[in-house]
Amino acid sequence: MSRRHERGDAAVISVTSAQPGRSEDLDSRIVRYAWMMSIRIACFVLAVLTPSPWRWMFVVGAIALPYFAVVLANAHRSARQPAADPYLAPSRPAIGDRPTVVVPADEGPSRDRPADTEK
């Protein structure tokens, strides 16, 4: 015996329009944060190697980048795809109050053949 229960009011979501999984979202945020931190390391190196006017710009970049990296990595999470349209199953024909039997015209009693009668 099957233990499946059919729910008539349950909405079915199409898989092709589902939201991306949490693991995909987390992976994209990690990659974005890693790129921002690699830019920060480049700013530290360039702050040591460049002359004075450029040095301060790279120092400010190295100090400010961690804040922006965290904000931008977490801001991507709030961007969502539109919700999927639920699948609406077609309606099933219902059985009427009194079931009727439809007899085709060629199977009824004919004039050539007498109808069976009980005696």
From TrEMBL:
Keywords: Membrane, Transmembrane, Transmembrane helix. Signal peptide: none annotated. It comes from the Bacteria. The chain crosses the membrane at residues 30-50, 56-75. InterPro entries: DUF3099. Residues 108-119 have a biased composition (Basic and acidic residues). Residues 82-119 are annotated as: Disordered. The keyword Membrane applies. This is DUF3099 domain-containing protein.
